[in-house]
Automatic annotation (TrEMBL):
This is SpoIIE family protein phosphatase. It comes from Ruegeria atlantica. InterPro entries: Bact_Sigma-Reg (IPR052016), CheY-like_superfamily (IPR011006), PPM-type-like_dom_sf (IPR036457), PPM-type_phosphatase-like_dom (IPR001932), Sig_transdc_resp-reg_receiver (IPR001789). Pfam families: Response_reg (PF00072), SpoIIE (PF07228). The modification 4-aspartylphosphate is found at residue 70.
Length: 424
């Protein structure tokens, strides 16, 4: 029985936090009256139940914040009621205190297993009851604060998911636009052929390859790698794709119209300087790019090329010998008035030239280290076949995927241009 001398405080004097409504379950009417009187003096809304079944009905209609339940009751015991109560589908946690004369450790363990949060040993003391309710209130306050934060997190995650879906759709469309910059991946020019490979590591990438021919026996092709990854790099490739258009020669900075009749290919070093000037003239642009741009006279295999910070192109001679070309050079968009050196070689029928991005040579291998130039050379020699062209590039990329660590995957955009010269 709860002594009345210790029940003079009101709720205004105490802090019971989240606990507002209390359900008292006891088959003893006297015990219920004493508990209810105490709880109402402390400012709680109290609901009474004589049996576990009646208590469950109350919980279904309007769940309480706290349950004080006797253990030993006719019909459904307090332990069984606690089990059934915890099985109810409720969004809000309720603190459950069992009232019992049992103090054995095994009985306490049974109560905890059933879902009870605390115990009070009869006869009850008002100070202890108040202290246990306060402890429960602190736990409920923390639990409900956590639940509120979880709801906020779930709401934020849903907003992020919707935003991610919208961005994902935009990126898918952006990829289609970027793919339109490379309208064809293989094309024959007389007996010779140019094949392209473009494999972004994400939805979109910062690599770009292309080719164009303003007339018979005249051919230009390029490989570009913009610094960084993602949207800004992809936007730069779209811009460069316009500068080096294969369809609109009047917009292509690598061509010059002569005698108002035909277009001529400008020297590669002049094209690199022009692109550098355009990029440096734009304020706020921090991106730069590396490039190999080459033009070739298909009548005699005379090839002129500029290497602007791009990996060294690999020349595969018809006799089986190989050679890396170029001295490196400066990337485009780093230094104003930078100069670019032109390289000239003569290709013989059967010779091939592979221009590639550092997505090949700087690929992390599963066995450790990078592929580097020697690994690329060996891979290219293994992939050379009579079919060549796109099949050669596809085989190169497939072999690259087999060499990398599965957990790392392709960490950079991979692109290449494969030029096969077969004479006039």
């Amino acid at each position: 029985m709860v002594p009345r001398t210790s029940l003079e405080e009101t709720r205004s004097d105490l802090d019971f936090g989240a606990i507002r409504k209390v359900l008292v379950v006891d088959d003893s009417r006297l015990q219920r009256r004493i508990l209810v009187a105490s709880l109402r003096k402390w400012g709680f809304e109290v609901v009474e139940a004589e049996t576990g079944d009646a208590a469950l009905a109350h919980c279904l209609d309007d769940p309480p914040d706290l349950v004080l339940s006797d253990w030993v009751m006719p019909g459904m015991s307090g332990l069984e009621f606690c089990n059934a109560f915890r099985a109810l589908d409720s969004d809000q946690y309720c603190y459950f205190i069992l009232l019992t004369s049992k103090s054995e450790k095994q009985e306490v363990a049974r109560g905890l297993d059933a879902g009870a949060d605390d115990f009070l040993i009869k006869p009850l003391e008002a100070d202890e009851l108040r202290a246990r309710i306060s402890a429960g209130a602190r736990i409920l306050d923390m639990q409900r604060e956590l639940s509120q934060k979880n709801r906020l997190i779930e709401s934020a995650l849903e907003e992020l998911r919707l935003a991610h879906d919208a961005i994902d759709k935009d990126l898918i469309q952006a990829r289609k636009i970027q793919e339109s910059l490379v309208p064809e991946f293989t094309r024959s020019f007389g007996k010779s052929r140019v094949s392209l490979l473009l494999k972004p590591c994400g939805h979109i990438g910062g690599d770009l390859v292309g080719m164009f021919s303003p007339g018979v026996n005249r051919l230009g092709f390029y490989s570009i790698d913009v610094s960084g990854h993602g949207i800004t790099s992809a936007m730069m490739t779209a811009r460069l794709g316009g500068y080096l258009s294969s369809k609109h020669f009047d917009q292509n900075v690598a061509m010059e119209k002569r005698f108002n009749k035909f277009y001529a290919l400008l020297p590669p070093e002049d094209v690199a300087s022009m692109l550098n000037s355009r990029l440096m003239a734009d304020e706020g642009i921090e991106e730069y790019f590396t490039m190999v741009y080459a033009i070739v006279d298909l009548r005699n295999g005379h090839l002129k090329m500029v290497q602007a910070g791009h990996p060294h192109p690999l020349l595969l001679r018809q006799d089986g010998s190989t050679e890396f070309l170029g001295d490196g050079g400066l990337p485009i968009g780093l230094i104003e008035d930078a100069s670019f050196q032109q390289i000239e070689i003569h290709m013989k029928p059967g010779d091939k030239l592979l221009v590639y991005s550092d997505g090949f040579t700087e690929c992390q291998l599963a066995e450790g280290g990078l592929l580097e130039e020697d690994g690329l050379r060996q891979m290219a020699q293994q992939c050379i076949s009579e079919k060549g062209g796109s099949e050669f590039l596809d085989d190169m990329f497939w072999r690259l995927t087999q060499e990398i660590s599965p957990k790392d995957g392709i960490g950079d955009d991979v692109s290449a241009v494969f030029f096969e010269y077969n004479g006039p």
